[in-house]
Write a structure and sequence with these properties.
The chain has 455 residues and is α+β, with helices and mostly antiparallel strands. It has six helices and 30 strands. The strands form seven sheets. Strands 7, 9, 20, 21, 22, 23, 24, 25, 26, 27, 28 and 29 form a twelve-stranded antiparallel beta sheet that branches. It has a four-stranded antiparallel beta sheet with strand order 10-19-15-12, with no helix packed on it.
């Protein structure tokens, strides 16, 4: 009887052990269930939750993270090198650009997957986020360069009124600076002993040796060279009396300035000097003496003008002679006009860091005030290059940074950039056409930490 009871106990214990062993074996073959987790897309917040909702720090919607486990399997996907958002499970062509899709081997981890290793990386090297991405694009951009400048006199049209003889100013017909004069207008009357003597010699020859044509013509020529006009000469011959004064006429039309100080006009930059120098009276007075050959007045023609444009360093290589320019005066935006770049000054002006381009134009109809400010747009250059949106690049002064897509997040990468055009920036080096870049780098930058990049 005792033996029978012992055998029953052994059978019961063996059965219980087998049942537990089967349960353990079965549980070991069951896949581990990974619970869904949610996080804030802003990396500096670092908020995690086991259910959807809003971030308690910034108020953004939490995004789902599909956690990786040991039972995930690898699969093959195909994507476009230029449009990474195109993903197919078989080879083919991109429906956007027609390029052949390339193989992209990846595991089942998606954009929102996060690993503990990624979360433990320094925030100045690696950022966990699921923001949209973009890639560099190679294309030709029609460059439009904006420039500021001002209107100046065309110095090629500047004329000078000089005294051909020494003498005294008897009558002055101009009274203030910037007075408008016309060609042929009388400027002043001058008394000259030299000119008076030359007239007397001519009259003596006409009276006493009228047949000596050689001497008579030489006397007439001398008077003309001394500044006497043909009408004045005829009047002297007809009257038989010398004229005590001779009139000086302008050979140019425009604004008159004193030759001694340029009339308060800086012809190099086209800017006015102190207003008091412009409105004060002329220093040249009646009764003053002039020397032979002395420049008395300078005449600037406002109908012929320059638009002087200042080109900054990033755009200087794009400016060429002949480029079309649209110039808009600030004083009269409705009087904009189109011209061309006629000359590029091969030097920097004093205390200036900009290159100067000149645009010649006819101001006789527009009547734009000299010295007024203008805005201009220079056309005519197409730049073939790799481009990124400006929002994808962060400037650290000399260095330019982008966030390149990596496993579980984004890493900061230093790039070399060129010109900036509208909403795009040229990429010279540091990226390839297959690199995925955060479309807006500002979302990934932590203002409290310094971005560390690897060259």
């Amino acid at each position: 009887m005792k033996r029978l009871i012992f055998l029953l106990l052994v059978v019961m214990l063996f059965g219980a052990y087998s049942c537990n062993n089967n349960k353990d074996s079965h549980s070991r073959h069951q896949p581990e269930v990974v619970k869904d987790m949610y996080t804030c897309p802003m990396p500096e917040d670092s908020v995690f939750s086991d259910k959807p909702g809003k971030c308690p720090k910034c108020g953004m919607d939490l995004v789902k993270m599909e956690m990786k486990n040991e039972h995930q399997h690898y699969k093959v996907e195909y994507t476009c090198p230029m449009h990474p958002e195109i993903i197919k499970d078989r080879p083919g062509k991109c429906p956007i650009c027609g390029m052949d899709l390339v193989k992209k081997e990846t595991d089942s981890k998606k954009v929102g997957d996060v690993e503990l290793e990624s979360l433990l990386k320094p925030t100045n090297e690696f950022v966990v986020s699921s923001v949209p991405v973009t890639t560099i694009e190679q294309r030709g951009e029609q460059i439009e360069i904006e420039a500021l400048g001002n209107i100046a006199y065309d110095t090629r049209q500047v004329g000078s009124i000089s005294a051909r003889v020494s003498g005294r100013i008897e009558k002055l017909y101009v009274r203030y600076r910037y007075q408008k004069i016309n060609k042929g207008q009388k400027i002043l009357d001058i008394y000259s002993p030299e000119l008076l003597t030359a007239q007397q010699n001519l009259l003596f020859l006409l009276k006493n040796d009228a047949t000596n044509n050689t001497f008579i013509e030489a006397a007439k020529e001398k008077l003309l060279l001394l500044g006497m006009s043909n009408e004045q000469l005829k009047q002297v011959i007809q009257s038989g009396k010398p004229s005590l004064t001779i009139a000086v006429y302008s050979n140019y039309s425009g604004h008159i300035h004193e030759a001694s100080n340029g009339g308060g006009m800086n012809t190099e930059s086209g800017k006015m000097n102190d207003i008091s120098l412009i409105t004060e009276e002329l220093s040249l007075k009646e009764g003053m003496y002039l020397q032979k050959g002395q420049s008395v007045f300078t005449v600037f023609n406002p109908d012929k003008a320059w638009a002087i444009l200042n080109i900054y360093g990033d755009n200087q290589s794009l400016i060429k002679t002949g480029n079309t320019v649209r110039v808009v005066p600030e004083t009269a935006p409705n009087k904009y006009f189109t011209a061309a770049v006629d000359f590029i000054e091969p030097f920097y002006r004093k205390e200036s860091k900009t290159l100067t381009a000149r645009v010649y134009f006819n101001n006789s109809v527009l009547k734009i005030p000299i010295g007024s400010q203008v805005k201009a747009i220079v056309f005519g250059n197409t730049k073939e290059a790799y481009w990124l949106p400006k929002e994808a690049v962060i400037s650290l002064g000399i260095d330019k940074i982008v966030f390149q897509k990596a496993d579980g997040g984004f890493k900061a990468v230093k790039i070399s950039t060129g010109i900036t055009h509208e909403k795009n920036i040229q990429v010279l080096s540091g990226l390839t056409a297959t690199d995925s870049i955060a479309a807006n780098a500002q979302y990934l930058m932590d203002s409290e930490s310094f971005i560390k990049v690897k060259n």
